Amino acid sequence: MNIFISGSLAYDRIMDFPGHFADHILPNKIHMLNVCFNINGLVEKFGGTAGNIAYTLALLGEKPSIVATAGEDFDRYESWLERNGLPRKWIKRIPGVFTAGAYITTDLDDNQITAFNPGAMAFEADLPALDDGALPALVHIGPGNKNDMQGLAERCRRARVPFVFDPGQSLNIWTGEEIARAVRGALCFISNEYELSHFLKMTGWRVEELRRQVSMVVTTRGPEGSVLHLEGEDTFVPAVTPEQVVDPTGAGDAYRAGFLKGLALGRDALVCCQMGSVAASFAVERHGTQEHFFRLQDFRRRYEAHFGPLDGLLSEAATL
């Protein structure tokens, strides 16, 4: 099966401030803010929703195609994708600009100040046709360039290719009418609780209207698990307990990878969500969004410890 993951590719530049932001920001001077935080150092990680999802899918035996743009500084990231066996055919290099970058400073209270440079993400990617009929396809449309998200959704509808719509942090770039049109016909709308509430407010829809427009709705709740809304019923899916919680960043993207792997294997929606929960548990055990690692037998063992037998994962994955 051809799996296409659209969204962002970014460098995450993470900095730690050995103090408290509140000690350096004067509330009565917030209108003329001018502060400097001396950090302990900077760590660069590979990130972006498309890259994160594709990485965990690679651990699950898939070779999804990333549909995104990257800048002239992408060589290090491209080498990482190559080492993980991920195709780069649909990654468009934009000369003269940088790859998207998030600059994240965290204080001792875990408060964060983030600056995001969209860089190459401001340019449209080259979108796959999807209608060549070569192989069955599955598309995940994640937060990235709005024109790419709209265009890929329309191509999926025309070619009758199932797609998952994941607005994430892109909600602020849409109008309600635009995003309502983009999600129609999706196999799944996936988001966290805040994003779902924001989406419903933007569109003026009730959740019942969203359920009429898409086949299923999945809402993640972090350590509280997730909820599958399907055929008029809500099913709670518990979070899987990790060995240790080190960094929750990237757990949502890992969940999506596990969910997509289940869809690729033809599993029912509940099993797909359970697989998402298992994948997320590995991600929170490491700092960064592409730092975790597991083997298929590790994944299956953890799944079966929480949810029961998962027949066929190893044998089927080897043939896809």
Describe this structure in words.
With 320 residues, this protein is of the alpha/beta class. The chain has a single domain, classed as UDP-N-acetylmuramoyl-L-alanine:D-glutamate ligase, CATH 3.40.1190.20. The chain contains 10 helices and 13 strands. A 9-stranded mixed beta sheet has the order 5-4-1-8-9-10-11-12-13, sandwiched between helices. A 4-stranded mixed beta sheet has the order 3-2-6-7. Strand 4, helix 2 and strand 5 form a beta-alpha-beta unit. The longest helix has 15 residues. It is globular, with a radius of gyration of 20 Å.
Tell me which CATH architecture applies here: 3-Layer(aba) Sandwich
N- and C-termini, Cα separation: 6 Å
Please tally the β strands and state the result.
13
What general outline do the C-alpha atoms trace? globular
Q: If you average the pLDDT, what whole number results?
A: 93
- What proportion strand? 15-25%
Q: Please describe the biggest sheet, giving its number of strands, its sense, and whether it closes into a barrel.
A: 9 strands, mixed
Question: Unreliable segments (pLDDT under 50, ≥5 consecutive)?
Answer: 316-320
Strand order of the largest sheet: 5-4-1-8-9-10-11-12-13
* Quaternary structure state of the chains depicted: single chain
Level-1 CATH class name:
Alpha Beta
Give me the CATH superfamily.
Ribokinase
The helix content is 25-40%
